Amino acid sequence: MSTYVELLDRRQVRTIDRFVLQHPGGTPFHESRWLDLVRASFGFETRTLVAWRDGLVVGALPLALVTAPITGRRLVSVPFGVYGGILAADDEAVGALDHGAMVLARTADARFLELRYLGPGPTAHQSVALHETYRADLPPTPEGVLPHIPRKARAEVRKAIDRHGVRLVEGRELFEEFYRLYVLNKRSLGSPVFGPRYFRRLLELYGPRATLHAVVQESQVLAAVLSLQTRDVLYPYYSGAFPGADRLGANNAMYALLMEEAVRRGCRVFDFGRSRKGSGAAAFKRHMGFLPAPLDYQFYFPRGGHPPAIHPGNPAMALPQRLLAALPLWLARLVGPAIMRHVP
After folding, report:
1. Which domains does the chain have, with CATH numbers?
2. Its pTM surpasses 0.85
3. Residue 210 has pLDDT above 90, yes or no
4. Of 72, 214, 259, 315, which one has the fewest beta carbons inside 10 Å?
5. Beta-carbon neighbour count of residue 92 at 10 Å?
6. Predicted confidence band at 330 (pLDDT cuts at 50, 70, 90)?
């Protein structure tokens, strides 16, 4: 029987999520929970294409239709996720889903289709390599984490723990401190922020697979991170730090201790996530011993065009960044979510 593609029937969500979790390329962003998150938070139209053959799922492609004044309508897999794109059992399923996505982009009058692949994508659309990702295998025991961190970063971890008494804590009660530090960091970079309801909804949707950790010195929270886990991969995805945390080595300590905790949880891979090439975040990840791997973000334009350039490296974004960085915290929290829905 040949492969055919249809839109996801909500009664089949568990079947599709099971396929995603069993696929070697499946990530938290491919799960139905992620589209539930962006739909509930921003009102995006979400559609998942499913490939079937002989009554079995052989592929899936989560998509959201986003409308913004600058970039127009676009079909994205997936908004606010660093990875997305087609998951398929074979080339036939890839081709069927790719064709279905192109048809959907045309019928939805989207300016473009964007597929965010981890590693080389299986499709052949126009590719943009603006970002890198940083992933590394974890050692088999927590005691093996520190020796694998480069010498200078390892010294900063030890300084934070031994000299400054920094320790790792976990719990949902860290939410307010996490969010405060997240907003502080984003504002300092001139970047918009999600509202607290977005994060509360994320924690609710992913349940015990979403965790909050922080490094504290006595009772003060120095840095905090929200992580997601899928199978044996931990994704520290959103974070924030006190402005003076770097002087204490708190960020180095937080990620080193989080890697140790990931090993205890049975994780074998630590996914440090996406960073723009040449950015400070990329330099920090390299400093911690993570090597970059290219991300393949592919674009299909039904009527021709070019990828949008809405990113911090674009000189045209310098003024908006300065304006956002100058906002008081209360105003940054207020206007951030309204801006975020346009830059997914």
Report:
1. 4-130+295-340 (3.40.630.30), 133-294 (3.40.630.30)
2. yes
3. yes
4. 315
5. 15
6. confident
